[in-house]
Amino acid sequence: MNIRWIAVLSFSALMTSPTLYAEGSDQEAMAAAGAAVFHQCEACHTLDPAKNGFGPDLHGVVGREAGTVPRFAYSDALKNSGLTWSEENLRKWVADNEALVPGTRMRHVSVTDPVEQDYLIAFLKSLN
């Protein structure tokens, strides 16, 4: 048997072994991929709770009530929306924020690919 085939088969066995392949690594990989998706957001948002950018800081956003980051001037529409940033609401927001909260000031970002949404949300959750 060729040495390359042995290496491939050994790697495959390791990756499918329940004792060696931790489920948490899936979330870590998704969060890492989400960091790349987040680059679209970095022009306006920070991940520093002490500092807002053109948009509010997104550190700890998952589970937070919309329009509540200190020292940020939200639109009345978002402040009064009553939204909590659940995974479902974050998906709707990044896909079409203007449809979710008419009158918001954030420009439309349109992350409509469900896989990219999964990655982005995994990344944001990793910051909580």
Describe the structure.
Helix content is 47%, strand content 0%. The chain has one domain (22-126): Cytochrome Bc1 Complex, Chain D, domain 2. With 128 residues, it is mainly α. The chain contains five helices and no strands. Helix 2 packs across helix 5.
Q: Cα-atom Rg, whole angstroms?
A: 19 Å
Number of helices: 5
Output the CATH homologous superfamily.
Cytochrome c-like domain
Mean pLDDT: 85
The main sheet comes to: none
Instruction: Using the coordinates above, name the CATH class.
Output: Mainly Alpha
The CATH architecture can be given as Orthogonal Bundle
DSSP helix fraction? 40-55%
Structural class: mainly alpha
Question: What is CATH's topology name?
Answer: Cytochrome Bc1 Complex, Chain D, domain 2
Shape: globular
β-sheet strand percentage: under 5%
Low-confidence runs: 3-22
The tally of structural domains comes to 1
Q: How many angstroms separate the termini?
A: 49 Å
H and E string: HHHHH
Total strand count, please? 0
